[in-house]
Design a protein that fits this description.
Length: 265
């Protein structure tokens, strides 16, 4: 059947959140090793990641963050100043969360220094705000598809956070007719209501729409449930799951474009 609309996920599909976070860690911890040469930067990074995952679950906003699709690492740098839903509650607690994570990571390597932890926390935010890492096939594929299909962006997260990512990669915005962020709707992927809302915003028909994303249990499950054909962008050859079966599985955005064009015949 003819394809008219393509919905793209953002993180892990068009932007590498993993690479951007790593860049922020590398730059922040380079400062730390100048200040404290005896410290093993890799151990501190591991500690931050470990304590972030553990502490994030202990805050009142955790269930809301899961619902919207906000990760523990995103909690280390997002503003969350959206002013709606439970974002004000999250904003009121997030600074303490960040400080506690960095303090705990430093204590793991024998440093009890809240002032240094605060500096590192702020540096990590600044470096993460500067980082925007697209995949090498992101722009070539979007350029190949734009003008031939209606391109939409559907991403989980806080509107303020996702807009910061897009601000760091402003070239992305020109390709999309509509951008829908789960935190502005109130539910995250895979909620079928979010997909239905996205289709409604663009006046798109599920039968002529394809969802492209890297996460089986958000992008693909949600698209399947909403009656949309789905393409799983599985760059690292992860194992599939029998309960969530995409229409197609590919290893690159280039293969996404090829699949779509082949469907058109």
């Amino acid at each position: 059947m003819t394809i008219k609309t393509i919905i793209f996920d953002l993180d892990g599909t068009l932007l590498s959140e993993e690479a951007a976070v790593q860049q922020a860690f590398d730059r922040t911890l380079a400062f730390l090793t100048v200040q404290q040469p005896q410290v093993n930067a890799a151990e501190v990074e591991q500690g931050v990641r470990r304590h972030a995952a553990a502490l994030f679950t202990s805050y009142d906003f955790y269930d809301f963050a899961v619902q919207i699709g906000i990760s523990a690492l995103e909690g280390l740098w997002g503003a969350f100043d959206d002013g709606s839903l439970r974002f004000p509650q999250m904003a009121s607690q997030i600074e303490a969360y960040r400080l506690n994570v960095w303090c705990a990571a430093l204590e793991d390597v024998g440093l009890s220094d809240r002032r240094l932890a605060k500096i590192l926390s702020l540096m990590f935010i600044a470096h993460r705000l500067e980082a925007a890492v697209t995949y090498e096939d992101t722009y070539p594929v979007l350029e190949r598809l734009v003008g031939h299909y209606q391109l939409l962006l559907l991403t989980n997260g806080a509107p303020s956070l996702q807009r910061l990512k897009l601000k760091a990669a402003p070239e992305l915005l020109q390709y999309f007719e509509k951008i829908n962020i789960s935190g502005g709707f109130g539910k995250g992927k895979p909620a079928p209501e979010l997909f239905e809302h996205t289709l409604s915003l663009a006046q798109a028909d599920p039968a002529t729409t394809v969802m492209v994303g890297d996460q089986l249990f958000t992008d693909i499950l949600g698209g399947n449930t909403a009656g949309i054909r789905t393409i799983w962008l599985n760059r690292t050859a992860k194992q599939g799951h029998e309960e969530v079966v995409p229409t197609a599985s590919v290893r690159s955005l280039t293969e996404v474009a090829q699949w779509i064009e082949n469907e058109e015949g």
